[in-house]
Design a protein that fits this description.
Layout lengths: L3 E6 L6 H14 L6 E6 L2 H10 L5 E5 L16 H4 L5 E4 L2 H5 L5 H13 L3 E6 L3 H5 L3 H12 L5 H6 L1 E4 L13 H19 L1 H6 L1 E5 L4 H8 L6 E4 L6 H20 L1
Helix pairs in contact: 1-2, 1-12, 7-9, 11-12
This protein binds phosphoenolpyruvate.
Length: 259
């Protein structure tokens, strides 16, 4: 059985002491669960101190971004090779990077390759804008984002991949997708992987939902067909809300096991 993944993206929030306090509160409240992975995604600055603070059986770390070249004259950038051994995962192609920083499909492709090359599992974020959904372009957008990101990746690398379906219009807006919309998008994402690597590989890839997740709706998405976890932004900055979301994952997992 695949592990449920609950990831908290802290975005550009919290200085080192604030991040440490949030980590302590989460560590005190969140129990160890062998079938649920909880991933913290602090700012680049907070990664190192938090890596020393966390119980690594309880939490894994992810970076929010990295540069695809391993080293060189790229002032201000941090490479995937520098993040080796510090993080297990890295967000790639988050909608804020695609839309605020104009990250292109080619850049996302290079980052996915660099991430795998350095032993870091990408959490590849894909999703359509409101206009694209209204124009019924969601499937095409998802296919384009998936196919371009995964060019040149081997089948064995792909099996560890994590994809996050994050409709752009649902991120940080309080306007979340319906579980049915998420199920349809996740199906398109898996079909896209299957067309490149076959059905067996596609089934093993974990696909998350992200977009204004809060404790009230977390279970609905965790129970949705094909959804293996959640990428949480705003609510992950609130220890009580993030703990409730992780607890919802515990409960859903427990119910699934009883079946
Ligand atoms: C995110 O940052 O990936 C995200 C889903 O944010 P929010 O939960 O705030 O919409």
């Amino acid at each position: 059985m695949k592990k449920i993944l609950i990831a908290g993206n802290w975005k550009m929030n919290l200085n080192v002491s604030e991040a440490s306090l949030l980590t302590k509160r989460l560590q005190d409240r969140i129990a160890l669960h062998k079938d649920i992975e909880v991933v913290l995604i602090p700012s680049m600055l907070d990664l190192q101190p938090i890596s020393l603070q966390i119980d690594r059986r309880k939490f894994k770390l992810a970076a929010q971004n990295a540069y695809h070249k391993d080293s060189g004259a790229f002032t201000g950038e941090v490479s995937f090779s520098m993040l080796r051994d510090l993080v297990s995962y890295c967000l790639i192609g988050h909608s804020e990077r695609r839309h605020i920083f104009n990250e292109t499909l080619e850049e996302v492709q290079e980052k996915v390759a660099a991430s795998f090359r350095n032993g870091i599992t990408p959490i590849l974020c894909v999703g359509e804008t409101k206009t694209e959904r209204i124009n019924k372009e969601t499937n095409q957008v998802l296919e384009d984002q998936m196919q371009s990101a995964l060019a040149n990746i081997t089948a064995s690398e792909i099996e560890s991949l994590v994809v996050a379906y994050e409709p752009v219009w649902a991120i940080g807006t309080g306007d979340f997708a319906t579980p049915d919309q998420a199920v349809a998008a996740v199906r398109t994402i898996r079909q896209s992987i299957a067309s490149l690597y076959g059905n067996a590989v596609s089934k093993n890839v974990r696909v998350l939902y992200g977009g204004s997740v809060n404790p009230d709706i977390a279970s609905d998405f965790l129970k949705a067909e094909g959804v293996d976890g959640l990428l949480v932004g705003g609510a992950s900055l609130n220890y009580a809300q993030f703990t409730d979301i992780v607890d919802a994952a515990f409960e859903v997992h427990h119910d699934l096991e009883k079946r």
